[in-house]
Fold this protein.
Amino acid sequence: MNIATQPLIDSSAPAPAEVTTVASPAHGLTPAFSPLYQQIKVLILQSLQSGEWKPSAAIPSEMDLAARFKVSQGTVRKAIDELAAENLLVRRQGKGTFVATHAEQHVQYRFLRLFPDDGDLQAEGPAQRQIIDCKRVRAPSEVAKALTIRQTEAVLQVRRVLSFAARPTILEDLWLPGAQFKGLTAERLRAYHGPMYALFETEFGVRMVRAEEKIRAVLPDEDQCALLKIDAQTPLLSVERTAYTYNDVPMELRRGLYLTDTHYYRNALN
Amino acid sequence: MNIATQPLIDSSAPAPAEVTTVASPAHGLTPAFSPLYQQIKVLILQSLQSGEWKPSAAIPSEMDLAARFKVSQGTVRKAIDELAAENLLVRRQGKGTFVATHAEQHVQYRFLRLFPDDGDLQAEGPAQRQIIDCKRVRAPSEVAKALTIRQTEAVLQVRRVLSFAARPTILEDLWLPGAQFKGLTAERLRAYHGPMYALFETEFGVRMVRAEEKIRAVLPDEDQCALLKIDAQTPLLSVERTAYTYNDVPMELRRGLYLTDTHYYRNALN
DNA sequence: CAGTGGTCTAGACCACTGG
DNA sequence: CAGTGGTCTAGACCACTGC
């Protein structure tokens, strides 16, 4: 029996004789073997999604989870290992395992990969942020497609400029599904000090888990020239991002224009 | 005793009573605890570097390695797990564990991240390659710095153009340390059909393990315009790569200029 | 000191590959 | 069928944290 198909805490349910290793599908075709630790992983994921364990909070200890899921500690461990590798959990020896959050300082540059040429992040400090606009609009077709919603649905459209040393360096437009981000306003964005994704977590319960970017070199249009204070011959990096929350659900489309005369986009090929 | 400090196969050496878990440094300061599996990892890495196990060949089974290193299978397993995660080894259930190679098809796009807008890699097929130049020069200062060699030393400088559907799309300049790449010529590059990094493996025993890229948007100079058949107002992606072999030794500096009107650079943020 | 994650072991059994 | 990697267990002990 697949342990994921039965209640795991409800002690009133008839206790199974044993937990088997194989997940046996009802349909029968292609056995689709799924290891126990994968099933545990799914269960932990569900607790994360449901908000049972909030960002930055500790999850139960490995022993507790092993008891709860009726498996050995090693199996829970392997599940947590993978979730930690995916940056959903953070292990801290002697303290516990915690739900990852965008508020942590060292996570900042996982999603913003622009670095100063001289390499001194500390000297540069955090970017100055300027919210240009935040409005509710009907989803443009490209946005609707990227967020897998209908064109009739509302999205929040935000435009902002990031500056380093008072020099405008990044112009970003981003679109968020209206349903999940009710009540997001320019004022609220301005009031929050910290990464935008951290605000999404605490204010809207939306945690961005991973993202994909398409990068191109482009020339700016007139508006963009004005906002970045550059001329029309200055080449810019166009960074088009789709960010996903749990279960690969797209939750943000973002298009950034990066000035790369004093900064560069860093990428590691592993 | 640290198992890495003693010969592991030489049976004439006095056999230690037991293998301890802790690597005890001679100096005494900061115990620097190193788990057994990390030490095993280093030993496996040494066998890879030394060429004991060649690219695409199978390494000994987990049981064999466990016996050789006098540890349990689980410990060897954990070491191999990490090396597989770093793309140095490839596990194949039922068959064995193999030394990763750049000749594998699915590894192609780990280092070349340019994709066609329509998304159909198959339709596009492999790039047509044209070697423009391959010459031996004294290392320019930036190159010497990146490859951590002296400016007096020789490097091989290669220039090539990659085309998709007969359209020049990538212009690359790359520099390789002369010492490791003796005998590399334009003819040899033209004669080899397959990824350049695969050639480096088979012909020169140099395996690229990871790389870092700095990406910018730039405008082309005259030469570049001519080679890519574009005008001076066409923005290009500048991709500056340093590629490393085992032990983080830099082995290649490469500067690519990518035309991004029909292609984009893909990146995943995990 | 107790509680957490981290390492290591030995053994059992399963899934996959190829002769 | 034997040999490989893959999973799971139970138990021991180590390293780190904070009370």
